[in-house]
Design brief:
With 239 residues, this protein is an alpha/beta fold. The protein is built from ten helices and eight strands. Helix content is 46%, strand content 15%. It starts with 6 loop residues before the first helix and ends in an 8-residue tail after the last helix.
Length: 239
């Protein structure tokens, strides 16, 4: 059964992704204005766009998030630390880092954990989400990656970059949720394009969603909310 959420509450679970390499400054500004209008939790932008996004979203209530080691996770730990430090100094509230996928697949879990821990320590009080790129991993590797992220102090584990030919799936989200404790949250990203998909994943315990389909999702949520209000219904359990 889906939890009842208002459109405004759903908006606060969304990190709106603005990450495609071809996005121009005009395109970026259009997307930033969209997130301000819908009141999402954050705009997730390319590292070079952080300072501009922070300025444009000032007083909007929308945070700025960025990506580290994106999209392959193969940059050195020192580079990831430098990226995270620069982004936070520019005003990013949260950073989403890509796990070293190759080392995770190789079973080099001490290296994977140390890589994550270094970014977490550099980020200080700022939220770090660790992107597993689940489409490239088997179930055992997903579990191992999530456990390493938790040991390293990450706030979230996240499914995907959206650049590896696959995205969030219900089986992977269920596995990730069961692989970490209650203090670590789960973010679904890649393929979250509709309200029903978001709600199905939210019912699994997913608390944040990376998507570029924000307008579609939230307009649907508003329409359903208006429909319920207009019908006089009092049962909000099947939203």
């Amino acid at each position: 059964m889906f939890f009842a959420l208002t459109a405004a509450e759903i908006a606060q679970t969304i990190d709106h992704a603005i990450l495609k390499p071809e996005i121009t400054r005009a395109d970026l500004d259009t997307e930033l204005d969209l997130v301000a209008r819908y009141g999402v939790f954050s705009a997730c932008v390319r590292p070079s766009d952080v300072a501009h996004a922070v300025q444009r979203l000032a007083d909007s209530g929308v945070a700025v998030c960025t990506v580290i080691g994106f999209p392959h996770g193969t940059t050195t730990t020192a580079t990831k630390v430098a990226e995270a430090t620069e982004a936070i100094e520019a005003g990013a509230l949260e950073v989403d880092m890509v796990v070293n996928i190759a080392r995770l697949r190789s079973g080099l879990l001490d290296d994977v954990e140390a890589d994550i821990r270094a970014v977490v320590e550099a980020a200080g009080d700022h939220v770090v989400k660790v992107i597993m790129e689940t489409a490239l991993l088997d179930d055992n590797q997903i579990v191992a990656g999530c456990e390493a992220a938790e040991r390293a102090g990450a706030s979230f584990v996240k499914t995907s970059t959206g650049f590896a030919g696959g995205g969030a799936t219900v089986p992977h989200l269920r596995l990730m949720r069961s692989s970490v404790g209650a203090d670590v949250q789960v973010k679904a990203s890649g393929g979250v394009r509709g309200l029903d998909t978001l709600l199905e994943m939210q019912a699994l315990g997913v608390t944040r969603f990376g998507t570029s389909a924000t307008a579609t999702i939230l307009e649907d949520a508003r329409a359903r909310e208006d429909g319920r209000s207009g019908s006089g219904a009092t049962d909000d359990s099947s939203y």
